[in-house]
Every structure is written in structure tokens, then in C-alpha cells.
Amino acid sequence: MTNYLEYAISLAEMVDGQTGQNPPVGAVVVKDGNIVGIGSHLKQGEAHAEVQAIHMASERCKGATIYVSLEPCSHYGSTPPCALKIIEAGITKVVYATKDVSLEKTGHDVLEDHGIDVTYRPSDRAHRLYDSFFKSKSQQKPIVTVKVSCSLDGKQANDHGESKWITNKKVKQDVFRLRHEHDAILTGHQTVLADDPTLTTRIEEGKNPKRFILSRKGDIQFDQQIYQDPTHPVTIITENENLKSPYEHIEIIYLPKCEVEQILNVLFERGIGRVLVEAGPNVSSQFLTSSFTNQFILYYAPKLIGGTGQYQFYQTDNVNPLDQTPQFQIMNTQMLDDNVKLTLKRK
């Protein structure tokens, strides 16, 4: 391993989605051409990547170089500043791949003021990793991913509401992994009625996201299985102040208007760093239209369903000029047997 900075970025990518409102970071300590310490920020509130790598390297930090995917921080948060730890450890050189534009004061100047050789080595790969995080911090909103599974003609179901299963088993497994990478999952009440989902992550060592259900009218009977398991709490967001929770594990949040920005404000206030929107056409369309959506993941099955546009995944009341429509950039394509996964980023 000679490209230590790329290795640090790989470590950050491995923990992407499990650090809450904090960025995923990887760090590698190198001395005399040997890796003597590595670290990743594993969870919000726990030791940062630089600190983990320094602890592993111990006394070998003196005179060493640390490679970090993101510029080391210099502020006190839930943990002490990483720049201070680097200085105390006796590290003499720092190389990092992305400037932390989410903070007013970062570590570059602090480290240089203490005589440490600091190099900013820009990386497109690292920039892609942190782009959504910087936007989230600026807006004080979670990173939003909208996921849709549909036919070639854009249908999430046929006109009779039949939707199981349009896509294949590999897509299903990939969606479980996608849930694991998010802090919360948001769906609509109509999707709960139609599919009776659990919205859990059924993979080995999988992390279940917090479950939020959007129901403006609040006309809920609580008969579906998602409401029955007391070990997996559910939060309902509604405009109906008369809706009351029948169980301790079900929380009700009342909003004057259940609009995208207000919903995301609620999630961010509750520590949600990433939310996966996995819903029907109504809710999906609201988020896809919104400027707060960061990523759109679209699974295509090679089927034509036909019928009316009732279950077309993107629907709007207004017809917008083409130059005013939401636009996305295709970041990646992947074959899942005979299904196609498109990963897109909002422009």
C-alpha cells in the first residue's frame, strides 16, 4: 500500500451511513514507509478516526505522517479537537483530501501554527463522499435519499394496486443494505396500508433505521404489523391533532403543515443525519420535487405494466417548462441480475 490517502478515503467509505450527523472519516498513520495506525469514525459521539489511528500507533506517532480523508477539526464538540490530538501525539506531517467547509475554523492553520507540515491534496473521490454532508450541515437538514422501484414505464404498481414484486430478489437485498446505511426511513400511510411493510433491515449485522410514517389526515387504525412490535418504535408525523397513540412505542408528532422542509427540520432536530424516503408516488414526488433531496436511487425491472398513470412514481399537479424541472446527474449504474440500479445526484 503506497497511496495512503486513498486508503484513508476507503476507510471513510466503509463507515459511510453509520456516523449520524457527523461525517465519515478515515485516517492512516505512516512511519518509515509502514502503516502503524488506522482508524475510522464509527459512530457519532465516539472517537474520531484520527484519534483511533493515533491510539493504535501509540509512541510510533512521533515523527510520523497522518493521512486523513477530511481536514482535521479544531473545535470542541462531543469529543476534543483532532488537531490537538495530532499535535500532542508528535506527528510532524498531515495530508488530507477534503477541506471541511462546514466549520468556521478548521485544523489546517492550527496545525501549521504548531510547526506541523500540512498538505491539502484534493480528491474528487473524497469530495463526492462529503458533498451531501456539507449541504446537510449548511441547510440543517438530513441527507435525503429517495428510493423507487418501478417498471420500465415508471409504475410502482398496476392499476389494481398490485406491487409485489415488480423488481427481483437482488433488488430486495440491495434495499435492505440501503436501509442499513440510513438513520431513518420515511414512508406514507398509504404505503403502509397497501404493502403492510415492517421497514426493517433483514441482513446479517444489519442496523434498523428509525421508522417515520407520514399521514396528513391521521386516519390510522393501527392494524398493520409495523405498529405491533414494541421493540421497534414508530413515529407518525401528522396534521391531525386528534390522533392519539394507542401504544407507548408509537410517538405522534403534530405539524401545522406536513411539508418537506418542516418534516426534515423535525428529523434533524432528533439527530437524524440520513433519511431514506421509501414511499408511494405521492410522498416520493414531493421529495423529488424538493431541493432538499440529495440522492435518488431508481431500480428498474424489465417489465411494462401499462394502464393509467395512477401509480406512476413521479406525479405533479403542475406542468412545468422543461428548463424548470428537477434535474439529476447519473453517478453510477449497476446490473442486479436483469434489473438495473441507477444512482443519481440532484443537480
TrEMBL record:
A Gene Ontology molecular function term of the record: NADP binding
EC number of this enzyme: 3.5.4.26, 1.1.1.193
Catalytic activity: 2,5-diamino-6-hydroxy-4-(5-phosphoribosylamino)-pyrimidine + H2O + H(+) = 5-amino-6-(5-phospho-D-ribosylamino)uracil + NH4(+); 5-amino-6-(5-phospho-D-ribitylamino)uracil + NADP(+) = 5-amino-6-(5-phospho-D-ribosylamino)uracil + NADPH + H(+)
Residues that, per the record, bind substrate: S163, R179, R202, E278
Cofactor comment text: Binds 1 zinc ion.
Key words, A-Z: Hydrolase, Metal-binding, Multifunctional enzyme, NADP, Oxidoreductase, Riboflavin biosynthesis, Zinc
GO biological process, one term: riboflavin biosynthetic process
Domain CMP/dCMP-type deaminase residues, every copy: 1-119
CDD domains (UniProt xref): Riboflavin_deaminase-reductase
Entry binding sites for NADP(+): W165, T191, D195, L199
Cofactor(s) required, per the database record: Zn(2+)
Residues annotated as binding Zn(2+): H48, C73, C82
Active-site annotation: E50 (proton donor)
Biological or metabolic pathway of the protein: Cofactor biosynthesis; riboflavin biosynthesis; 5-amino-6-(D-ribitylamino)uracil from GTP: step 2/4; Cofactor biosynthesis; riboflavin biosynthesis; 5-amino-6-(D-ribitylamino)uracil from GTP: step 3/4
Source organism, top-level taxon: Bacteria
PANTHER family reported in the protein's UniProt record: 2,5-DIAMINO-6-RIBOSYLAMINO-4(3H)-PYRIMIDINONE 5'-PHOSPHATE REDUCTASE, DIHYDROFOLATE REDUCTASE FAMILY PROTEIN (AFU_ORTHOLOGUE AFUA_8G06820)
NCBIfam families assigned: eubact_ribD (TIGR00326), ribD_Cterm (TIGR00227)
Function: Converts 2,5-diamino-6-(ribosylamino)-4(3h)-pyrimidinone 5'-phosphate into 5-amino-6-(ribosylamino)-2,4(1h,3h)-pyrimidinedione 5'-phosphate.
Family: In the N-terminal section; belongs to the cytidine and deoxycytidylate deaminase family.
The name this protein goes by in its record: Riboflavin biosynthesis protein RibD
Organism: Staphylococcus massiliensis S46
Source species taxonomy: Bacteria, Bacillati, Bacillota, Bacilli, Bacillales
